[in-house]
Amino acid sequence: MNYEIKQSDKFRYIEEGSGEPLILLHGLFGALSNFRELIEYFRQHNTVVVPMLPLFELDLLHTTVGGLEKFVHRFIEARNYQQVHLLGNSLGGHVALVHALRHPQRLKSLILTGSSGLFENGMGDTYPKRGDYEYIRRKTELTFYDPAVATRELVDEVYEIVNQRSKVIKIIALAKSAIRNNLGEELQGIQTPTLLIWGNNDTITPPFVGKEFHRLIPNSELHFIDHCGHAPMMERPVEFNEILHGFLTRLNQPAHVS
């Protein structure tokens, strides 16, 4: 399924379906393919929106978690989205967390999966020589419990990014920014209802990270998915969509009065 990429002002995005907006923020090596199953399922219930994050377009000074959050804030304001369900994977989760702390007014819920912001194992301390395809393939496979999920198409996407020096510089800047921007106790200030969906076999943001988010974010619930790594919406889409749909359904039920 190919989606129309819309352009409004300087923003490029996908917008499918109708209903309350469900905005999806991808990670450092994220692409539309990461969210395909999620878009197809939730476009039947929500307006599913995927903004193209300017990971490689911002100047180096603003190539930070905070810089990306400002972009997301301007996008939501420009599109005048209300009652937003903001979902982020990996670095996208980190950006969503900062947004929930700075600008919670338009948010109805926050959904995090494999989010950075507390702890993560990134691509590692060593960056590959250009042309080292096997290294990139092995690193991409580590994202998942089942290495077969790292298709040739996906590995090619990552390889194309790390084979360009200008993009590698931006990736390193964002990775360092994510490490510096450790949210810690600040998370206790998030009042937005929060759903945490974690892979039980995530080696990048391991299960204890999900548990720590759950401990720190007051109004949160945590779900683990077995045989699943760092990108549950890709690796276990049926379970992921079921958990998310249940959460959104409960949010929209009127409060029970005894």
Describe the protein in words:
- There is one protein chain.
- With about 260 residues, the protein is of the alpha/beta class.
- The protein is about 40% helix and about 15% strand.
- The chain contains 9 helices and 8 strands.
- The chain has an 8-stranded mixed β-sheet with strand order 1-2-4-3-5-6-7-8, with helices on both faces.
- Helix 2 packs across helix 3.
- The model has no long low-confidence stretch (mean pLDDT about 90).
List keywords for this structure.
alpha/beta, eight-stranded mixed beta sheet, 9 helices
The multimeric state of the shown protein is: single chain
Rounded mean pLDDT is 91
Please state roughly what percent of the residues sit in beta strands, choosing from under 5%, 5-15%, 15-25%, 25-35%, 35-45% or over 45%.
15-25%
Shape: globular
- Describe the largest sheet: 8 strands, mixed
Based on CA atoms alone, the radius of gyration comes out at 17 Å
Distance, first to last CA: 46 Å
Secondary-structure content class: alpha/beta
Strand order of the largest sheet: 1-2-4-3-5-6-7-8
Annotate the secondary structure layout:
Layout: E1 6-8, E2 11-16, E3 21-25, H1 36-42, E4 47-51, H2 65-79, E5 84-89, H3 91-102, E6 107-113, H4 133-141, H5 152-162, H6 165-180, E7 194-199, H7 207-216, E8 220-225, H8 232-235, H9 237-251
Parallel strand pairs: 3-4, 3-5, 5-6, 6-7, 7-8
Antiparallel strand pairs: 1-2, 2-4
Helix pairs in contact: 1-9, 2-3, 4-5
